[in-house]
Amino acid sequence: MSFLMSCFFTDMRGQVTDSYRIPDSILMRMDEMGIDEADTLTELECLYFVFRFPKPDSNFNYAGKKIHFKHTYGGGKRYFFSEERRLLRIQGQNMGMGAVIYWFDESEKKLYDIPYDVVVHCWTKFILPKKKIANMIKPRQ
Questions:
Q1: Backbone dihedral region of 92: left (phi > 0), alpha (psi from -120 to 50 degrees) or beta?
Q2: Which domain range does residue 130 map to?
Q3: pLDDT of 82-123, one tens digit each?
Q4: How big is the CA angle at 125 (ends 124 and 131), to the nearest 5 degrees?
Q5: pTM to 2 decimals?
Q6: What's the domain count of the chain?
């Protein structure tokens, strides 16, 4: 049972999922996040991402980065933040949705022919190879 519970409160990459680690000053402004579908983040959304998805061994700056939100059930940036708000507000719930983040450097973006620096794959239980994620987000031609 403890293994099962740990799957709900952490992900396989050690990414932050507990809202108590995100400063209250940011959490109190959740209604200001996800109000557009731009593929870049606002300053406040960037702050949220720094705590929600810290890049290991790096001071990754989300400002100006192109981000794609991949959902099993559709959606985009608005959907992502809407679900984060909903889950964070459930009494006793102290985490956002299960999500895995993928960072793509310039050489990977060129290799996979994608314009995105970051892909957030939501409602997933698996870490997929970057090549598969890149193929999932490419426009159909």
A1: left
A2: 2-137
A3: 988 888 877 545 566 788 899 999 999 999 999 999 999 987
A4: 70
A5: 0.80
A6: 1
